[in-house]
Automatic annotation (TrEMBL):
<feature type="signal peptide">
    <location>
        <begin position="1"/>
        <end position="15"/>
    </location>
</feature>
<dbReference type="Pfam" id="PF01522">
    <property type="entry name" value="Polysacc_deac_1"/>
</dbReference>
<feature type="domain" description="NodB homology">
    <location>
        <begin position="46"/>
        <end position="235"/>
    </location>
</feature>
<protein>
    <submittedName>
        <fullName>Peptidoglycan/xylan/chitin deacetylase (PgdA/CDA1 family)</fullName>
    </submittedName>
</protein>
<keyword id="KW-0732">Signal</keyword>
<dbReference type="InterPro" id="IPR050248">
    <property type="entry name" value="Polysacc_deacetylase_ArnD"/>
</dbReference>
<dbReference type="InterPro" id="IPR002509">
    <property type="entry name" value="NODB_dom"/>
</dbReference>
Amino acid sequence: MALAPALALPPAVSAQVPALPATVATAAHLTEVHQRLDTRAADHARDVALTLDACSGAVDQGLLDTLVRLRIPATLFVTQRWLRRHPDTVAWLQARAAQFEIENHGARHVPAVVGRSLYGMSGPASVEGVTQEVRGGRDAIVQALGSTPRWYRGAGARYDSVSLKAIEGQGLRVAGFSVNVDDGASLPAPRVAARLHRVQPGDILLAHLNHPSAGTGAGLAQALPELQRQGLRFVRLSDAAGVITLP
Ligand SMILES: [Zn+2]
């Protein structure tokens, strides 16, 4: 099924496409949504988006401080569970709303795969469970931060078709990515940095905000200044010219 209106890309843009070639339907009929930013306009030609998932667990404050120091905006995907656990961080983020936009990563980090599991996480028994997960995440953000999310990224970032329909039926767009920066916060800093050194204009980066002991924060701190020196311009998803779902 179509996730969102896929833009017809001119050949020049198609030729730039990328490390992750396309949105992938896996063997188990799950979809991993791959997207890039629209870089066709001159003033968006160097855009890159950093997205950070806060699934549950802790806060990588060192990573957030790095982004503040480098003035790099980001789009954070947070769960209800994470928001409730970290009221001080919620207040910190509220004071920096122009730099960090907050989007929906669900209520309890339940993957959008009905009747099966994903990376060891059990999906709900029915699609109503997906709807509850999406609604719970949205309501938590509205309540804690006063903003209404427009994007949804499910736990594990893969989806079955009935769940995709349920998410879109709530007026949310599924947020994909083009560069998996930290493999679920499992990579050491040098490997995180190595993946970042391959970033191109238009990439949407996926990393994690909830594992301060992982290599994610140090890898980003090492590589982000170099990307800035290359003239890449970090934007929040809402500040991009558009987000294109790859076919
Ligand atoms: Zn997650």
